[in-house]
Amino acid sequence: MTAAGWLTIVLFAVVLTALALPLGGYMARVYTGGRVFLSPLLGGPERLLYRLLRVDPGREQDWKAYAKRLLLYLILRTQNAFYVPHALNPLGYHSAPWNVTFNTASSFLTNTNWQYYGGETTMSYLSQMIGLTVQNWLSAGVGIVVAVALIRGIVGRSGKSLGNFWQDLVRTVLYVLAPISVIGALVLVSQGVIQNFTTYLTAHTITGLTQSIAMGPVASQEAIKLLGTNGGGFFNVNSAHPFENPTAFTNLFEMLLVLLIPAALVFAYGRMTGNRRQGYAIYGTMMVMFLGAVCVACIAEAHGSPAQHAAGLHTHAISGSTGGNMEGKEQRFGIAGSALFDVITTVTSCGAVNSALESFTGIGGAVPFANLSASEVIFGGVGTGLYSILLYVLLAVFIGGLMVGRTPEWLGKKLEAREIKLAGLGILVTPLAALFCTAMATATTGGRASISEGALSKAGGSTPQGFSETFYAYLSQANNNGSAFAGYTGFIQPNAGNLGSHGITFANLLGGFDMLFARYAPILFALAVAGALAGKRVTPAGLGTMRTDNPTFVVLLIGVIVLVGALTFFPALLLGPVVQGLTGHLY
Amino acid sequence: MKRDIVTSIIAVIVFTVLLGLVYPLVITGVSQVAFPGNADGQRVYVRGRLVGSRIIGQNFGTAVLEKNGKVKEVKGAVVTEPDPRYFQSRPSATEGGAYNAAASTFSNRGPNSVKTEEANAENIKAYLELNQPYDRGLTVAKIPVDAVNTSASNLDPEISPANAWIQAHRIAAVRRLSLARVNGLIAQYTDARGLGFSGERGVNVLMLNLALDRLGHSAQSAGSAGGKG
Question: The domain containing residue A141 runs over which residues?
Answer without folding.
Answer: 3-582
